[in-house]
Design brief:
The protein is an alpha/beta fold and 348 residues long. It folds into two domains: 190 residues, Bordetella uptake gene, domain 1 (D-Maltodextrin-Binding Protein, domain 2); 143 residues, D-Maltodextrin-Binding Protein, domain 2, CATH 3.40.190.10. It is built from 14 helices and twelve strands. The strands form three sheets. A six-stranded mixed β-sheet has the order 2-1-3-11-4-12, with helices on both faces. The chain starts with a helix and ends in a 7-residue tail after the last helix. About 3% of the residues have low confidence.
Length: 348
């Protein structure tokens, strides 16, 4: 290397270091003394709320300036209220983070007019773990297996948050692809409310993330009140080796394709954390870095282990890619999906 090139390289490295220091100082100054609000699209007590409150106790120490992190629940319309709020009303300054199901983004892909956003324009921090869905019912139903369910003379009632949400979409999809008898009761503000309704006999069960169910409904599972009936993952969950996997019972290749798309729509991005559109890249990257550092934080992991919560994170760029792929789905498949999940069902 010539002396001139060596000097040029030193200047470039020095410039990069100075710029990095300037960005870090600016971030330090911005977040210092501020409060970052995490808007959770469900009511308190469910899996989304549990993850968010645990993350909020640790995220601040990984952000420059160590801001305070608080959680605000904004349930309603199957988490659509929170998503619309983040997109249209939250300033892109780094002080608001959204936490709503990735299935809400899929509602926009499907052309839902209530989804007043473009999912491709959200920023993404990442997810603590991809969602792996299952449907559970109470022992009062007398249904123990998929065969029992298929032969049931009474449709099972599943509690759900709202149209297009995974808690509603999965039952509709199972009814269409497997022919099982069921009805969907929508309008619950969160899965904690679905649990209470199932325990009181108002509904028979529900479909949402198994990793959340086994934590938030642990007592019901241990007592035998609640039992897993079917899982909607592409491969069996390690906990559910003896529970039917829906895609293996699909009647046709078209049905399999539908369930595979649903697994993509309601899996990787299901419990991701999002940012308002238009945020400066450097601030988004600061938040993304802090989020992933939190996912590796020893105190956070210890708390997650104690709470029996799964931590297997995916970063923001991975979630962004997953969302982009949903917008490229085959129109014919999307049309069938839309027709299935928009079937009118009873409201609570």
């Amino acid at each position: 290397m010539s002396l001139a090139i060596w000097h040029s390289a030193k200047i470039i490295v020095a410039s990069v270091l100075l710029l990095s220091a300037a960005v870090s100082a600016a971030a330090q100054e911005f977040f210092n003394g501020k409060t970052v609000v995490v808007i959770v699209g469900t009511a308190a007590g469910g899996g989304f709320d549990t993850y968010s409150r645990m993350m909020a106790r640790h995220l601040g120490k990984h952000l420059p300036g160590n801001p305070t992190i608080v959680v605000q629940n904004m349930p309603g319309a199957g988490q659509l209220i929170a998503a619309n709020h983040l997109f249209n009303r939250s300033a892109p300054d780094g002080l608001t983070i959204g936490h709503f199901s990735g299935s809400v983004i899929f509602r926009h892909v499907l052309g839902d007019k209530g989804a007043m956003f473009d999912g491709r324009k959200f920023g993404w921090l990442g997810t603590p773990a991809p969602e792996r869905h299952a449907c559970v019912v109470t022992e009062k139903t007398g249904v123990k297996t998929l065969a029992d369910w298929s032969a049931s003379k009474r449709p099972l009632k599943f509690g759900a948050l709202g149209p297009g949400n995974s808690t509603s979409a999965w039952p509709h999809l199972l009814k269409s692809t497997l022919g099982v008898p069921l009805s969907v009761i929508e309008g619950f503000k969160g899965t904690a409310d679905v649990r209470l309704a199932a325990e009181s006999g108002e509904v028979d069960g529900g479909c949402w993330g198994w990793d959340s169910i086994k934590v938030t409904w642990a007592k019901g599972l241990e007592s035998g009140l609640v039992r897993p009936l079917i899982q909607t993952t592409l491969e069996p969950h390690p906990d559910l080796a003896d529970v039917a996997v829906a895609i293996q019972y699909a009647k046709s290749k078209d049905d399999q394709a539908l369930l595979r798309l649903a697994a993509q729509a309601y899996g990787p991005a299901s419990i991701a954390y999002s940012l308002p559109p238009g945020m400066p890249k450097d601030r988004s990257q600061t938040l993304q870095t802090a989020f992933m550092a939190t996912m590796k934080d020893a105190d956070f992991l210890a708390e997650a282990k104690k709470a029996n919560l799964v931590v297997s994170p995916l970063d923001g760029p991975t979630i962004e890619q997953t969302v982009a792929e949903l917008y490229r789905a085959e129109p014919k498949l999307l049309e069938r999906f839309r027709n299935i999940i928009e079937v009118s069902q009873p409201q609570r």
